[in-house]
UniProtKB/TrEMBL annotation:
<keyword id="KW-0413">Isomerase</keyword>
<feature type="modified residue" description="N6-(pyridoxal phosphate)lysine">
    <location>
        <position position="42"/>
    </location>
</feature>
<feature type="binding site">
    <location>
        <position position="315"/>
    </location>
    <ligand>
        <name>substrate</name>
    </ligand>
</feature>
<dbReference type="Pfam" id="PF00842">
    <property type="entry name" value="Ala_racemase_C"/>
</dbReference>
<feature type="domain" description="Alanine racemase C-terminal">
    <location>
        <begin position="247"/>
        <end position="372"/>
    </location>
</feature>
<dbReference type="Pfam" id="PF01168">
    <property type="entry name" value="Ala_racemase_N"/>
</dbReference>
<keyword id="KW-0663">Pyridoxal phosphate</keyword>
<comment type="function">
    <text>Catalyzes the interconversion of L-alanine and D-alanine. May also act on other amino acids.</text>
</comment>
<feature type="active site" description="Proton acceptor; specific for L-alanine">
    <location>
        <position position="268"/>
    </location>
</feature>
<dbReference type="InterPro" id="IPR009006">
    <property type="entry name" value="Ala_racemase/Decarboxylase_C"/>
</dbReference>
<protein>
    <recommendedName>
        <fullName>Alanine racemase</fullName>
        <ecNumber>5.1.1.1</ecNumber>
    </recommendedName>
</protein>
<feature type="active site" description="Proton acceptor; specific for D-alanine">
    <location>
        <position position="42"/>
    </location>
</feature>
<dbReference type="InterPro" id="IPR029066">
    <property type="entry name" value="PLP-binding_barrel"/>
</dbReference>
<feature type="binding site">
    <location>
        <position position="139"/>
    </location>
    <ligand>
        <name>substrate</name>
    </ligand>
</feature>
<dbReference type="InterPro" id="IPR001608">
    <property type="entry name" value="Ala_racemase_N"/>
</dbReference>
<comment type="pathway">
    <text>Amino-acid biosynthesis; D-alanine biosynthesis; D-alanine from L-alanine: step 1/1.</text>
</comment>
<dbReference type="InterPro" id="IPR000821">
    <property type="entry name" value="Ala_racemase"/>
</dbReference>
């Protein structure tokens, strides 16, 4: 497959699907045999590409998928994947019919919602639902065993709903301190205990809980960030049961190189001034690609060397200072490995004063995604060419 057929710009993200497969299969080895792994592919698989990641995860043994809202679920369904698919966020009651049609499971937590959704479901239609319990995240869910049982009873009575699951979400499973996690886990256990009839799935574990606390595996886990090869937090890196492999790399090529005299200025605001004769190169990536202005000063890899971004990051371009002349066309790695050197997602997150989750999510759709297996390109996605 040739890159030229799909895009002309010298900036792209590379997604290593072998690393997704590896992270999934290593995680499966930690799980009891009857525990299913749901791959969390919301937000376009954290910016990696929903369908490509979903397929790789399922091939590697994931038995379910999870997304944030129905439109995302439909996007994944269109690719023909037939494993259980759960919408984790709130849906409108009007969405119930479409979800039932496509055998997509929805998250529920209000009786009024069920009453309304029931009206939108046709005779003979069956909507699979998971009840969300709010055990301390404070986002969505029922808060007491009484509310849980009331909803469960309503669902059991209705011919239009099937109670497929009960779940909760942890706020601090990636903290070294486990007190709050234990509180949430205990509350969830007692809520599930209070149900007379248990649904097929009870689940609570995100990546951090899956990797750290075996007791949270129950009969399903929801794996997001660690499937992409990223640690849920800096502090639990030491506790990870296997080395994660980062899937996402970001690359570009030098489009212009020049030698500047001492005292010349670079970019908007003229904030950078050369302190001697300097080689300055221009890269075709900027804040409209999600390569944000906070990244002024960030180190990138050019010709296997660590070099800094100088001056302000523009909308479509930024400049780097080279230790010596390098030719136009030289590949530059912004995130990922080049030779012996590596810039990790965590390095970029630190510089942007955020978490690794946010970084691939904000690399915008105008950056083409190239998918690789065994070092070979297997697919290229570029919304601009479609
Ligand atoms: N389950 C739910 C309900 C989630 O919201 C998320 C991630 C996951 C599982 C996967 O978590 P992991 O990526 O830590 O494995 N949700 C979010 C979020 O709302 N903001 O950041 C991550």
């Amino acid at each position: 497959m040739t890159v030229e057929a799909k895009f002309y710009r010298d900036t792209w993200a590379e997604i290593n699907l072998d690393h997704i497969s590896y992270n999934v299969s290593e995680t499966l080895r930690l799980l009891p045999e009857n525990t299913k792994l749901f791959a969390v592919v919301k937000a376009n698989a954290y910016g990696h590409g929903d369908v490509q990641v979903a397929k790789a995860a399922v091939e590697a043994g994931a038995q379910g998928l999870a997304v944030a809202f129905l439109d995302e679920a439909l996007s994944v369904k269109r690719a023909g994947l037939s494993v259980p698919l759960l919408v984790l966020g709130a849906s409108s009651p009007q969405a119930a019919k479409m979800a039932a049609d496509r055998q997509i499971s929805l998250t529920v937590f209000q009786k009024d919602w069920l009453l309304e959704a029931e009206k939108h479901l046709e005779e003979g239609q069956l909507l699979r639902v998971h009840i969300k319990c709010d055990t301390g995240m404070g986002r969505l869910g029922v808060k007491t065993p009484e509310e849980l049982n009331e909803l469960a009873a309503f669902i059991h009575r209705s011919p239009k709903f099937f109670l497929e699951g009960v779940f909760t979400h942890f706020a601090t499973a990636d903290d070294l301190s486990t007190d709050y996690f234990e509180e949430q886990y205990g509350l969830f256990a007692s809520m599930v205990d209070s149900l007379e009839e248990k649904p097929p799935f009870t689940h609570c574990a995100n990546s951090a809980a899956t990797l750290r606390f075996g007791k949270t595996h129950l009969n399903a886990v929801r794996l997001g960030i660690s499937m992409y090869g990223l640690s849920p937090s800096e502090e639990i890196k030491q506790e990870l049961p296997f080395p994660l492999k980062q899937s996402f790399s970001l690359r570009t090529r030098i489009v212009h190189v020049k030698k500047l005299k001492k005292g010349e200025k670079i970019s908007y605001g003229a904030t950078y001034e050369t302190s001697e004769e300097e080689w300055i190169a221009t890269l075709p990536i900027g804040y409209a690609d999600g390569w944000l202005r906070k990244l002024q000063g960030q180190i990138v890899l050019a010709g296997g060397k660590r070099v800094p971004i100088v001056g302000r990051v523009c909308m479509d371009q930024c400049m780097i200072r080279l230790p010596e002349e390098m030719p136009v066309g030289t590949e530059v790695t912004l995130i990922g490995k080049q030779g012996e050197e590596e810039i990790t997602m965590d390095d970029i997150a630190r510089k942007m004063e955020t978490i690794n989750y946010e970084v691939p999510c904000i690399i915008t759709a105008r950056v083409p995604r190239i998918y690789k297996r065994n070092g070979e390109i297997v697919e290229i996605v570029n919304p601009l060419s479609e």
